[in-house]
Amino acid sequence: MRQRGGMHILLTNDDGIQAPGLWALYDRFRQDFDVTVIAPDRERSAVGHAITLHQPLRSQSLTLEGNRHGVAVNGTPADCVRLGLAEILEGRPDLVVSGINPGANVGVNLNYSGTVAAAKEAALCGLPALAVSIHGHDGLFYTEGARFAFHLALRILDRGLPRGTFLNLNMPNCPLEQTAGVQVSRQGRLAGTERFERRLDPRDRPYYWSGIDLLHCDGTPEVDGTALQDNFITITPVKCDMTDYDFLEALKQWEWEPTGDSRVACASPWPEAQQPQEGGTP
Q1: CB neighbours of 151 closer than 8 A, spacing ≥ 6?
Q2: What was the pLDDT predicted at 56?
Q3: HSE of 182 in the Cβ direction (CA atoms, 13 Å)?
Q4: Residue numbers of the domain that contains 117
Q5: If you ran DSSP here, which 8-state letter would residue 87 be given?
Q6: Running DSSP on this structure, what letter comes out for residue 222?
Q7: Which CATH number does the domain housing residue 34 bear?
Q8: Where are the alpha helices (DSSP H) in 7-141?
Q9: What's the rounded Cα separation, in Å, for the pair 161 and 259?
Q10: Within the chain, which residues score under 70 in pLDDT?
């Protein structure tokens, strides 16, 4: 459809082109916009901002149940955005929406999330973008999440976003009317508890399944994870520029050797008796 001035929305995710959260967004957005789906051909959760360099990327147009059309790519979420902009789409979309991811993307999870990375890649390319996640894994209210994501998308299209900034949206797993409201929040800094489950294969060689327990929240109301646990819809603006501006000026005050001689600037990691000789090993 070309209501709303012929605007075009690109949808993607990290859970694969068959994921129900992706198609919940599609069903809502296509009522008002031209929509293109370009998503990984399989689940690519927690791949972060990886891109594919050492094997060819392939795309395949698919028609799914309900006359839903999309393009599957054998790459990462960031690949989907990059390939879509460079080769698949005829023009640049007005907005990129990534999700809906089952499981919250708050705190340090933003560094690992493929859902967030797709939105970040779009922002790096100068496009407004939105990452959408829902807090839970079973019996998810995808339709409710898509409703609010559409509402937020209209705000983005109307007001715009700073270049290089995207929004990270997390939804409680309940009807919109049962949420505590909307909290504009900052990203939390506390990590979940890393755990590795050790098992043995039939030859008694150990292998490990990696996992992360629930994120710890510091109880500060404006932090994304805390607000989400308190049943708020959380919206966090995220910048692609990773410069630590608070430390930038302090770093300029460090003393620097004009020769760049690391032997003067820092202590050697080698014990005195084991200093490597030029062209050789200790």
Answers
A1: none
A2: 97
A3: 11
A4: 3-188+219-246
A5: I
A6: T
A7: 3.40.1210.10
A8: 20-29, 77-83, 114-124
A9: 43
A10: 1-5, 190-194, 212-218, 259-282
Overall number of domains in the chain: 1
Q: Structure tokens of 280?
A: 């050789």
pLDDT for 6 equals 82
Distance CA 171, CA 146 (A): 10
Give domain status of residue 261, yes or no. Answer: no
Owner of token pair 């990327």: 57
Contact assessment for residue 101 and residue 13, using Cβ atoms and an 8 Å cutoff: yes
pLDDT digits (tens, 9 = 90+) for 145-174: 999 999 999 999 999 999 999 999 999 999
| Sequence letter at residue 66 | G
282 domain residue, yes or no: no
Nearest to 146 by CA among 109, 176, 188: 176
Alpha helices by DSSP H, listed for 34-187, are: 77-83, 114-124, 142-159
CB 7 within 8 A of CB 16: no
- Looking at residue 34, the DSSP 8-state letter turns out to be E
The structure tokens listed for 256 are 């620097």
pLDDT at residue 276, rounded to an integer: 47
For residue 195, give the H/E element and its range. strand 194-200
Q: How far lies 137's CA from each of 44, 68, 185, 194, 233, in Å?
A: 16, 24, 23, 19, 17
Question: Are 103 and 136 within 8 A, CB to CB?
Answer: yes
Question: 62 lies in a domain?
Answer: yes
Question: Cβ distance 188 to 217 under 8 Å?
Answer: yes
Residue 206, in any domain of the structure? no
Burial of 190 from C-beta contacts in 10 A (0-12 / 13-18 / 19+): middle
- Looking at residue 4, its pLDDT comes to 61
